[in-house]
Amino acid sequence: MAWYNINSSDGIAKEFDQKKRIEKCGFCGQEKLIKTDKKIYFSEFEIEDRPICYGCYIQHSKKAVAR
């Protein structure tokens, strides 16, 4: 059994402490559980913060490949 201090800087404990956010995804347009907010750069002066759901986050992420 493990004990997590919610006030510590432990990432695992913070993940379970956060409240679930359900909003309209800025990428697919559906109301889903939100993972985080992403910045979209249209130009040097136009920047938008949009929420992104778990599905879109995984779909738009890139895998790092070591060569």
> Mean pLDDT, as a whole number?
81
Q: Please trace the helix and strand order, writing H or E for each element.
A: HEEEH
| Number of beta strands | 3
* Tally of individual helices: 2
Main β-sheet, spatial strand arrangement: 1-2-3
Quick description:
This protein has helices at residues 11-17, 54-60; strands at residues 22-24, 31-41, 47-53. With 67 residues, the chain is an alpha+beta fold.
Describe the structure.
The termini are far apart. The longest helix has 7 residues, at 11-17. This protein is 21% helix and 31% strand. The mean pLDDT is 81. The chain has helices at residues 11-17, 54-60, and strands spanning 22-24, 31-41, 47-53. The protein is α+β, with helices and mostly antiparallel strands and 67 residues long. It has a domain at 23-60. It is extended and about 35 Å long.
Q: Keyphrases for this structure?
A:
67 residues, alpha+beta
Architecture blueprint of SSEs:
Layout lengths: L10 H7 L4 E3 L6 E11 L5 E7 H7 L7
Antiparallel strand pairs: 1-2, 2-3
